Amino acid sequence: MTTAFVGDTAALTGRSLKHITRSLDTIITTAIMPIAMMLLFVYVLGGAIETGTTSYIDYMLPGILLITIASGIAYTALRLFNDLKGGIFERFQSMPIARSAALWAHVLTSLVANAIALVIVTAVAFAMGFRTGAGIGAWLAVIGILLLVTLALTWVAVVAGLVAKTPDGAGAFSYPLIFLPFISSAFVPTASMPGPVQWFAEYQPMTSIVNTLRALFEGAPVLSDIWIALAWIVGILVAAYIAAIAVYRRRMG
User: Fold this and answer.
1) How far apart are CA 6 and CA 4, in angstroms?
2) In 20, 64, 65, 201, which residue has its Cα 20 to 30 A from 32's Cα atom?
3) CA distance 144 to 252
């Protein structure tokens, strides 16, 4: 059973990746908005924002990377929605294919597509002056956290793709996720925010993730932020996965 699942998932992932290679504009589009934000904040607004001794591009990059992921998973929901409307899943149901393989194919494709977009955005950040004191271990931790965030939010995208009624609805769920880093420590210190906004910013998941990534990039101790971040990420991943499988079984059963 496990061997069949792995083989079916690999075959369907290959199919999804072929769609990605034929429409590389989706990856480019995913990277363009975060890059535009970096240019705007660093060269227009950054001089008015006080972040201490840290250069602003170094300060804001973790938030930009999270926005890149939030932008990219919208296409996952849209691709899943199009497959459902196109009757592909019904055809899969009539074939001897593991039921969840089709969902995992979209998830793995999302990981690949978002990884490419993250590399592009990070490369532009280096060109803009981003510098890091992270060693190999810290870089591996950054990569691991970004992959976990992508995996968790991709399963949220799967739920959205399964329940959406229109293509616009399939992608619209990502707007709050794109907006959430703006009400966190991603672009300005939370201490500069008014009381209720500061409370929300300090306790929502993006802040602990941003703080962890920033500390890793700086080569500084991550303290308790990494455990809070991991708790949020794993919690979202588990909840979204359970919800996605339940919705999928109900819809296809």
Assistant:
1) 5
2) 201
3) 33
Nearest to 225 by CA among 253, 199, 202: 202
d(CA 155, CA 131): 32
E strands, the chain, in order: none
Query: CB-hemisphere CA count at 13 Å for 41?
Result: 23
Look at the chain and count its residues.
Answer: 253
Tokens of 125: 């950040």
The answer to whether the pTM exceeds 0.85 is: yes
Exposure of 3 in the CB half-sphere (CA atoms within 13 A): 0
Q: Encoding tokens for residue 221? A: 């101790």
Q: What burial class does residue 68 get, using C-beta atoms within 10 Å of its C-beta: 0-12 exposed, 13-18 middle, 19+ buried?
A: buried
Amino acid identity of 178?
A: I
- Taking a C-beta distance cutoff of 8 angstroms, is the pair 79, 161 a contact? yes
Tokens of 75: 């296409």
217, 122 Cβ separation under 8 angstroms = no
Give residue-wise pLDDT tens across range 63-101: 999 999 999 898 888 888 887 787 766 666 666 566 677
